Amino acid sequence: MHKVAIAGYATTKFRRKSETSLFEIACEPCRNILAEYEILKKEIDAVLFSSCSVEQYSSSIISEMLGLSPKISHRIDNLCNSGTNAIACAFSYIASGLCDSALVVGAEKIDTPGRRLTWDITRGEYGLPVHWAGLFAKAHMRKYGTTEEQMAMVSVRNHLKAAKNPDALFGEPITYDEVLNSRQIVPPIKLLDCSSLCTGSSAILLVSDKKARKISENPIWIRGIGQQTNCASFSKVANDLTSIHAAKQASADAYRMAATDPLSIDVVELHDAFTILEILAYEDLHFAKKGEGGKFVNQEEISINPRGGILGCGHPIGATGVAQVAEIAMQLDGNAGLRQVKGCKTGLVHNLAAAGTSATVLILGIDQ
Amino acid sequence: MHKVAIAGYATTKFRRKSETSLFEIACEPCRNILAEYEILKKEIDAVLFSSCSVEQYSSSIISEMLGLSPKISHRIDNLCNSGTNAIACAFSYIASGLCDSALVVGAEKIDTPGRRLTWDITRGEYGLPVHWAGLFAKAHMRKYGTTEEQMAMVSVRNHLKAAKNPDALFGEPITYDEVLNSRQIVPPIKLLDCSSLCTGSSAILLVSDKKARKISENPIWIRGIGQQTNCASFSKVANDLTSIHAAKQASADAYRMAATDPLSIDVVELHDAFTILEILAYEDLHFAKKGEGGKFVNQEEISINPRGGILGCGHPIGATGVAQVAEIAMQLDGNAGLRQVKGCKTGLVHNLAAAGTSATVLILGIDQ
């Protein structure tokens, strides 16, 4: 297997509405990468587009708009997991030797059809993601004594971090009381326990070992990939609603492939579309012991969601996984400005789709 | 790079309408593969869905319906090229070592949104694929003296072959006069020079070298892959409308990777959505000299489109590329019944999308 590195990354300002076309939004971060890293356009072998939009032949359109003529070009979609799936796909194109460089771009508009989960009739009348978040929260509270206050603290902390991120949807801190007093949506989930769909885009340039060493003295490697799809129906997610089983499997595989462990991780982007998901992820990724995720909220050992997570940054569905990887790459590159995690060498990305029916975990690292 | 083989293939009966859901249609050929080849369900590492539909998290849904829990699962779309893109993607997941087996399924319903090419304003009012087919035909006729009669013969021959294929949309031969006298659509393209959109599905199971040798004494290997995306706009396809330049590039790369040449190819599936495209493909794949594609129509040396091509079988967009590969796999496996090409060892698949803006060429072979 050829080694694969991240040679460029860029994320746009996440915003609510935009009159700009999805394709223009997608091109924004790509143009930044192509300009900043001086990659020759003819060197881009693959363009993969991650989005839940209904546009047709979108990867060809984006390629043309960027002046690229890649060998490989197609769209990938899998709801919130689309971006991380696309990065794993680009990894495999390079690792297999089929190509030497791949541009992955995720973009979404706020009115994306990716919000809909109409197929899963096992959800009954509870079709919105917040309904299953409520079930996970209730199960964890009942079994482990996790509290609404601990969940509120996740939101407070992630909004505080987002306030240092000029690209985040939410630019102001929120208070603990504001979260706890925000409108009940599906008890115990309140409005400020939930992330917001938004418009945005992010791009990553992946390259082969050989190309990486030409571009950078200290390349950012993709060292581990774990992916798992357990089902599509919420009723089949698990008998036990206190874990996301797909994420546990994906993280075990990623740690094994990277030959590392949770203690070696310095910085993490995890999927916090609802506050309870961050608490579950602490446990599923083995940062906290089972049942102790609630108490882990206030820890300071590992830097988690330094950009502000999905709660603070907003959730442009097909772009989210790409933006998570862009954040970890920027951190490892020592290029994260006000929110730089000092001395980080190894980072982890955790992403989910559709009630945790599928999950991806990626481990990135620079040489010591 | 790990070697990759085709361990299973199945295609459904192509039909016009169907009341069945897209997901049920997609599951049909997969169930045949899982039953026939006795692959354990837990051994399927990836499920890739090729379709232009607007359904969300479709690969997870299909996985659940089949009782599969793959590591990797997402949809791939790129108009007519989707299926061949998905197979190249599955190839890379296995060749890179990320997984050992991948089920690729393409499915489409006749009313797919993949028919629309609304973005490309360079087509002016000529938004339908038949308009660009007309331009290619006129250019080739003017420069090389290709005739409407030669194009008609492509349709006659492919419909004759489809009559031996129980899964084809068209089950009856058509006559030369019927084609020439059929309604003019965009001169010189007549109704029977055109393929028909339809409903259908096809699936391929790809496996690693190690797994292939356990299953088969004579595995069908994917030996060469070439892909090229030149643009999205018809106006940028080429200055020269007598070739599909993306296909020329893709075929050169595929021949090189497979270390073979056109003279070694025994059986071909090529993209004949319009009769003129078959003639261009003869030249772009180097079976005929430039300009002599029209005269090549009556040749008998290489077996071309034995299942009846897209003209005879119909065109379920996201399924077409997968069905082309399934046909070549079946031929190399010696399992093609009435339409078996005797003694074939090496086969080629040629697929295009959106006015030849992108192309894929795959070369398959069995050991001699």
The gross shape of chain A turns out to be globular
* Oligomeric state of the chains present here: homodimer
Order of helices and strands of chain A: EHEHEHEHHHEEEHEHEHHEHHEE
Going by CATH, the homologous superfamily of chain A would be Thiolase/Chalcone synthase
Describe the protein's topology.
2 copies of one chain form a homodimer.
Chain A: E1 4-11, H1 22-36, E2 46-50, H2 58-66, E3 72-77, H3 82-95, E4 101-108, H4 129-144, H5 148-162, H6 176-180, E5 184-186, E6 189-190, E7 200-208, H7 209-215, E8 220-229, H8 245-258, E9 267-269, H9 275-284, H10 293-296, E10 303-304, H11 309-313, H12 317-332, E11 346-353, E12 358-365
Parallel strand pairs in A: 2-3, 2-4, 9-10, 9-11
Antiparallel strand pairs in A: 1-7, 1-8, 4-7, 5-6, 8-12, 11-12
Task: Offer a quick outline of the entry.
By secondary structure, chain A is of the alpha/beta class. Chain A has twelve helices and twelve strands.
Label this structure with key terms:
10-stranded mixed beta sheet, 12 helices, 368 residues, 20% strand, 35% helix, alpha/beta, two-stranded antiparallel ribbon, 12 strands, homodimer, Peroxisomal Thiolase, Chain A, domain 1
How would you characterize this protein structure?
The structure is a homodimer of 368-residue chains. Chain A has 368 residues and is of the alpha/beta class. Chain A has a single domain, classed as Thiolase/Chalcone synthase (Peroxisomal Thiolase, Chain A, domain 1), CATH 3.40.47. Chain A is 35% helix and 20% strand. Chain A has twelve helices and twelve strands. In chain A, the strands form two sheets. Chain A has a ten-stranded mixed β-sheet, sandwiched between helices. In chain A, strands 5-6 form a two-stranded antiparallel ribbon. In chain A, helix 5 packs across helix 9. Chain A is globular, with a radius of gyration of 19 Å. Chains A and B meet through helix 2, strand 3, helix 3 and strand 8 of A and helix 2, strand 3, helix 3 and strand 8 of B.
